[in-house]
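Form 7-S
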Amino acid sequence: MDEKLMMDVVPGLEGIPAAESAISFIDGEAGILEYRGITVEALAEKSDFLETAWLLIFGRLPKKDELDKWRTDITYHTRLKLKILRMMEYLPENGHPMHYLQAVTSAMGMYYPARDTLDAETRYWSAVRLIAKMPTIVAACMRLKHGDAPIQPRNDLSFAANFYYMLNEHEPSALVEQILDAMLTLHADHTMNASTFSARVVGSTLADPYTVVSSAIGTLSGPLHGGANEEVVHMIDEIGSKENVRPYIERKLERKEKIMGVGHRVYRTRDPRGEVLKGFIRELAGHKAIDLRTIEISAEIESVVKEKLEMKHLHPNVDFYSGIVFKAIGIPTELFTPIFAMGRVAGWLAHWMEQLKTNRIYRPTQKYTGLRAQVYAPVGER
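Output:
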């Protein structure tokens, strides 16, 4: 038989290397995630999102003058063009913010043409605009959906504080600002996940960066990728009380149903990002910024999951904890995944630029399972 017909198909390409990359590293057995060799825990504690974005995109920590310019360039490119805001006003009010974000990101490519993707200046300014404007899009979308006018960004605030201000029209506390910035850092990259693979595939065609990022946003919008943290909050609300956790989990396991926020395709132990967020949950609890019911239910879920699923190497992941933290600081549930995208855009851009260095367009093959050599029958004889 033809050797090509004997090919093994690996569902989801699990475990199949699709590229060489020096951007991020995961050891799923040890619970390690590093960006360019630096642990994500260290970056969340000692760095901030904009410095981390530079590290991912340009391959090293920036010098002071480089970081100052990067911050300034992003700060002064946060505003949206009037026509883009007008376009957003005509989008359906019941649309999900991820659909807003994908549509507007794609439209930005018409206002900032970037067809010469091999030009360093084009790549730099595209990265600046995409990182700078995505928070403005997300905040404007949410306000428009509720009948409120978008709030102009402020250049005197940090990246995270500015997003919170555009969303709520008041500045965040120092703790909330720290948490939002760390959230962006923790979500900035995660090796060859579905949305990153999408970005590299589209980038390999030499499509412009706005199209690349738009395709990645569309991929992230799926509930199996970026929407799990929304489902965690719905799950906690559905459970309702600490006493209901055990029967809820046991019922799910009996039916072989997925428990949202539990398990990961890569990690066989703790998710290092989740460990950082657990610290924030404890801190929020100390500031009485999170309701006791949420803490009790989430802690009981952890306990029951450990009892029932630890032997299968299934643990709460970053989505489990991020949903709890977002809810605690007053972020609307439908913005959980868009904020994920605001952080992950740094990783998408880094992989796009890395792809272009030794580019070869992606063209996988398939294993054909359909009919062959069929005779065409006229419509009257079918």
